[in-house]
Amino acid sequence: MRKIKVGLVQQANTADIQSNMEHLSESISYCASQGAQLVVLQELHNSLYFCQTENTALFDLAESIPGSSTDYYSRLAVKYQIVLVTSLFEKRAPGVYHNTAVVFDADGSIAGKYRKMHIPDDPAYYEKFYFTPGDLGFEPIETSIGKIGLLVCWDQWYPEAARLMALKGADFLVYPTAIGWESSDTDEEKSRQLDAWIISQRGHAVANGLPVISVNRVGHEPDPSGQTNGIQFWGNSFVVGPQGEFLVQAGNDKPENLIVEVDLERSENVRRWWPFLRDRRIDAYEEITKRFID
């Protein structure tokens, strides 16, 4: 059986980047001590989620890849002999910045990176101000434990992205995430939002016959502008198997490090039982690339 142990780091961040990174290092160490071969961090894990406002000074948070953060996480991957999924604010060139996930193999090398393709622009999530849409496509990243179909946060609402990763041979899908509630929403609306987020990703697992790993941040982060009451990130980091079955799930109110075993061979059996890829009508899908079909 081809099984891997996965560590999920659900963290609450502060404005102190060095402290955040030290806490991440401690969590990575813990996951490795529990046998994790793959450790996944949340979206933009070094800092607060800075996209709540549009502020040109915050571009100073960005860094080159390779750079100081990749050096830091590369050393941790080597030290603990793990595959490590990170999420960084990339400065590619003057005026060109990306929301970029970087994967390190167990030897510390950069196995690959993915630039977030779908960029939101909603109240408290002003990402289009900061991030140029990704241009690396939907390409699984080859590592010593398998092919990672790496996507980031807003990408998780798009079945096309998950499908393309699956069709290119991803062994599992990974979503570093930063999503939460605004306090003015009713409890009923908050419940609907969280349920929709989980259902969508479980649907990707079912439709593609692949495990899904989703790691979200947690805790309250204030709005620096004071225009809103900030974001209460809802945690609920989870792993599901290829039939959408829960393997592990965190709560919504505190940092947690989760360890779970994922059976990668199960995908083969599930795809035999439910041969969705076999029965796709690829001869009839031409219109899927249109914005809308009038």
The low-pLDDT segments are: none
Write out the strand line-up for the largest beta sheet, numbering strands in chain order. 5-4-3-2-1-15
CATH fold group: Nitrilase/N-carbamoyl-D-aminoacid amidohydrolase
Question: What number of structural domains do the residues give?
Answer: 1
Order of SSEs: EHEHEEEEEHEEHEEEEEEH
Q: What is the name of the CATH class? A: Alpha Beta
| Relative helix content | 10-25%
Structural class, please? Answer: alpha/beta
Biggest beta sheet summary = 6 strands, mixed
- Based on Cα principal axes, name the global outline: globular
- How far apart are the first and last residues' alpha carbons, in Å? 49 Å
Overview of the structural elements:
- The protein has a single domain, classed as Nitrilase/N-carbamoyl-D-aminoacid amidohydrolase, CATH 3.60.110.
- Helices cover 23% and strands 28% of the residues.
- The protein contains 5 helices and 15 strands.
- It has helices at residues 17-33, 68-80, 159-167, 187-208, 266-273, and strands at 3-10, 38-40, 83-93, 96-104, 110-115, 141-143, 146-150, 172-177, 180-182, 212-216, 218-221, 231-234, 238-240, 246-249, 256-263.
- A 6-stranded mixed beta sheet has the order 5-4-3-2-1-15. The protein has a 6-stranded mixed beta sheet with strand order 6-7-8-10-13-14, with helices on one face. A 3-stranded antiparallel beta sheet has the order 9-12-11.
- Strand 3 and strand 4 form a beta hairpin.
- Helix 3 packs parallel to helix 4 (187-208).
- The termini are far apart.
- The model has no long low-confidence stretch (mean pLDDT 97).
